[in-house]
Amino acid sequence: MCKSITIILSVLMVCANGRYLIKEDYRSPYVFVEDGRNVYDLEEALSEDQQELTHANNFLRVRRQAHGALSSNPDGTSNVMAKVPLSVNDKNMLSAVGTVSGASGNGGFKAAGGGLAWDNVNGHGASVTGQHIPDFGDQLTAAAKLNVLHNDKHDVTAQAFATRTFPSNPNVPNFDTYGGKVGYTYDDKVGASLGMQHTDLFKKTDYSAMGNLNLFKGRDSSLDFNAGMSKSVSPYIPSSRWEPSAGLSFTKWF
């Protein structure tokens, strides 16, 4: 059995709250929606991180063993993912996946869920997952990836997702977020991606341009540097700007 543990140090820059009172955080111009009682971290819930965990290691062919991933957040919490194959043949694998985001170590967490994922030996994949966000509601996500090109030096993968959010507060309606990205990797060492996601309820579109560089790769471990820029555009954001992010990721198989 092969397991992987991934430690990712990154910068999380956006959060959103919950009633239809739109406000601006002058330190970081993002849309806030307030419900007067609770504060909801919608941006983390609507990010593409779940899709990345479900279909981890886009540049590798199908990994047929159970594996897991562990990543850290700047606030000291952790994200955990497990993926266990249910059915495998020469070309396809159906797996059960489970995720916990923002685990505090004392039983608390920001989101938890699970679902099913399909992976093809040629790098294609799809998943249907659900997650529960305490004090906010539930989400259902359908995601897919298509490996457009793969040879000894080049890899191009396109990904797309759609998320339906069901807030527990009756004053906040159900809403959809959808998006996708295209990623390119050269020689399994240098990569770049362009992504976008949109939420109609907030009239908000997020853009991202990311890059990664493999610093070290051994038989059972890998170290990568990741950096990029992201920007949010909305009529409720009078002056949006590109925000930088950077981090290191370490992966260990054993």
TrEMBL record:
Q: Which GO terms describe its cellular component?
A: extracellular region
Query: For the Attacin C-terminal domain, which residue ranges apply?
Result: 134-254
Q: What is its main location?
A: secreted
Keywords per UniProt:
Antibiotic, Antimicrobial, Cleavage on pair of basic residues, Immunity, Innate immunity, Secreted, Signal
Query: What does UniProt give as the signal peptide span?
Result: 1-18
Please, which domain of life does this record's source organism belong to? Eukaryota
* Cellular localisation: Secreted
Give GO terms for biological process: defense response to bacterium; innate immune response
- Every copy of the Attacin N-terminal domain together lies at 67-132
Q: Which Pfam families did the record assign?
A: Attacin_C, Attacin_N
The UniProt family comment states: Belongs to the attacin/sarcotoxin-2 family.
Q: This protein is called what?
A: Attacin
Q: From what organism does this protein derive? A: Parnassius mnemosyne
